[in-house]
Amino acid sequence: MGESLLPAQVSTGIVKALWYSRWYIFQSFVVIPFGLLVILTILYGFNQLLVNVIKIRFPCSVLGMLINLVVLCVLNAMGNVWSSPKHKKTWKGKVSAVFAWLLEHYLRIVKPSMNFCLKWINVFFIPSFIILPLSEPISFVECMKIAAVFVIGGLLLMVLDVYMLLGLKYVLLLLGYGVTKAEEGTFSGSEDNETDAENDYTEEEHSEIELQTISKTRLSTSEDITTIDLAELRRSREGTSSSDPFDDLRVRGTPEDSIQIQKSNSETSVNDLALQVSATTAKVEEKPDKYTQLTGTTKTVAIFVSNYIDWFMYLALFLISLPFYYISSIHVMLPYHLGLTVFCYYIALLIPMTFPQTKKFAHPILILTFLILFVCFIGSLMYHKGQPVGFLDDLKYYKTGKNYLNLFSGVAYYNNGMVVPQNVLAQKFTAHPQWPGCGDFLSSLMDVSIVSLSLPMFTHRKDFIKNFWVLMPPLLVSIAATFFTYPVVCYKIGISSERSIGFIGRLVTLALGTPLITSLGGSVSLMAVCTILSGICGVLIGDLFFKLLRIPENDFITRGVTLGINCGAIATAHLLNIDPRAASMSSLSFSVFGTIMVIMSSIGAVKGLIQGWVGM
Q: Which stretches are transmembrane (predicted)?
């Protein structure tokens, strides 16, 4: 009789798991997507303002990040300006309370979607790697020259940045500006200035973000999607203290791994946490009594499905997309590529977790790229009846260039922004040629992730202000070296003009690098590859690099600024979990770095000078 009841128990367990996960599913597939659509709509408005009104080329995502940072800082400042007990019952105190309320509830609204994008930021860099087979061919000799410039130039600039930062901190210490010991990893002004400037805050606001367990309720923070949670924003006012639930960005793990995470602290990597978050969801968040009501097979199935509900969701998306891909009259690639990309990302995270010895070189982006290209190649051979050229034809629709900024233009694109020729449209290669590709979907979300970086920047804004005179000289020197040295050196050793200019953007995050190199007339594909490889190298060898230079692990200024300038958003995503204060320095550094580079590229005289140096 036990065997006859097994199917019924399994189905009951699945139903129970879905019921227990209902709030998580609602948060993941309703609340977060709605927030993403709102943010993308706002960014679209910013882009229209920049392009059609102000008439300048500037990334709307960076503008959104800066505006969001300013809004947070203004709300926070106004919420604290009259927060002392003597103003509590006056109109000034009420105004301050209103701004504090606005800050708290504004963060409650934007937190889920922005945290989701921060957690998935590694996936958003994938399209540039996937479409590499479509790039123009390059000779072996030129490839080796590019590799030499990439390695030698990258190491020299990183060493220069490190020693400039250390030298500036030493000089400021001699001048009496209160640079602390390297072991303390921080820099601050005089004690009197600190007291005056930080009157409304406690030292807790400057403490490192702690690794903690996720909360008991799934609805509150959508734990298995968001790696970063704005948990509490504590304010200390004279004589009173109020608790605001949005102070620190806290890294969230899984309930069963929480003790291990707390013990490992900074040794826990972003990839470990991402896998832990994705692999277990409902078990830790749901109250134990919900599962104790179940018994036997029903309980086992319910717990298993709840823990791996993300795997089942994205696997189902991939399986459902197969008929739409293989039916020749439809042949739509978006759901097929999207389901494949997300599911392969989970597998890419699983590999270094299963085989820890591979963590030093098996970065998820590299593994994910191989898995996607391999499966796409096999799938295209099956659809195109063994013709390898079909693989490249399908790949042209992975990133068509039809992102949220031109989604309703009415023009059919493919191959990363090329207009589909009429003869190709006549062949009816796909039933919906005007649809965006998976890469367009992910690149659109990358813009949201750039805006989301304003959250850790807001949390650690005072570190940047106090260290302004330490940070800006290395930034300006790195900008000058990158903008005016790379194109000349590359062109002189025989690299083509377009690729020589493409090297200017090797240290700029993709959101900023694309308009930068497009404005200068360089190779966007080379820029994208160099940018991503720079970030991956920073993640894989960063610790060894700083260890060889004897940089203390808690010197978040040197580590954050160096990785921010040289390794961009990928290294920042890595730092968000292992050293959040360094991540804030990193995000601020690459944002300022990239913004200044884009501004310089829009100046006609500078643009003409660079193009003249490389024979364009």
A: 24-46, 58-79, 116-134, 146-166, 308-328, 334-353, 365-383, 468-489, 501-520, 526-549, 556-576, 588-610
Residue 516 has pLDDT above 60, yes or no: yes
Give 47-78 pLDDT, tens digit per residue: 999 888 988 877 888 889 889 989 999 998 88
Q: Are 577 and 539 in contact (CB under 8 A)?
A: no
Count of Cβ atoms closer than 10 Å to residue 245 Cβ:
16
- Could you tell me where the beta strands, DSSP code E, fall in 272-393? none
pLDDT of residue 335: 93
Give Cα separations from 257 to 213, 231, 236, 289, 306 (angstroms): 8, 19, 33, 20, 16
Tokens 């959101």 locate to: 511
Q: Hey, what's the torsion of the CAs at 33, 248, 596, 151, to 10 degrees? A: -90
User: Which region, left, alpha or beta, applies to residue 453 given φ > 0 means left and ψ of -120 to 50 means alpha?
Assistant: alpha
Structure tokens at 517: 């190199």
Tell me what pLDDT residue 297 has. 83
pLDDT given for residue 568 in this prediction: 84
Q: How confident is the prediction for the chain on average, in pLDDT?
A: 78
Average pLDDT over residues 40-48: 94
Give the residue from 585, 576, 589, 588 showing the smallest Cα distance to 226: 576
- Tokens read off for 507: 């240290």
CB 571 within 8 A of CB 564: yes
The DSSP secondary-structure symbol of 209 reads: P
Mean pLDDT of 183-209: 36
Please, where are the H alpha helices in 131-287?
Answer: 140-174, 191-197, 218-221, 258-264, 270-279, 282-285
At 518-541, the pLDDT tens digits run 888 888 888 888 888 888 888 888
Total length of the chain: 616
β-strands 211-212, 249-252 pairing:
parallel
Quote the tokens at residue 143: 């490839």
- What backbone phi and psi angles, to 5 degrees, belong to 241? -145, 135
Handedness of CA 563, 565, 567, 568 (dihedral sign): positive
Judging by DSSP bridges, how do beta strands 249-252 and 228-230 pair with one another?
antiparallel
- Range scoring the smallest mean pLDDT among 143-147, 153-157, 344-348, 357-361: 357-361
Locate 331 and state its tokens. 């042949």
Q: Can you say whether residue 417 is alpha, beta or left, with left for phi > 0 and alpha for psi between -120 and 50 degrees?
A: left
Answer yes or no: are the C-beta atoms of 324 and 430 closer than 8 Å.
no
With CA atoms as reference, report the closest residue to 282 among 261, 256, 317, 259.
256
Listed in order, strand segments (DSSP E) in 374-437 are 413-414, 418-419
User: Between helices 309-326 and 364-383, what is the axis angle to 10°?
Assistant: 30
Task: Identify whether the C-beta of residue 454 lies closer than 8 Å to the C-beta of residue 513.
Answer: no
Average pLDDT rounded to a whole number, residues 435-461: 87
Run of H or E residues at 341? helix 334-354
User: Alpha carbon of 134 to those of 52, 127, 393, 435: distances in Å?
Assistant: 32, 12, 9, 20
The answer, yes or no, to whether residue 241 has pLDDT greater than 60, is no
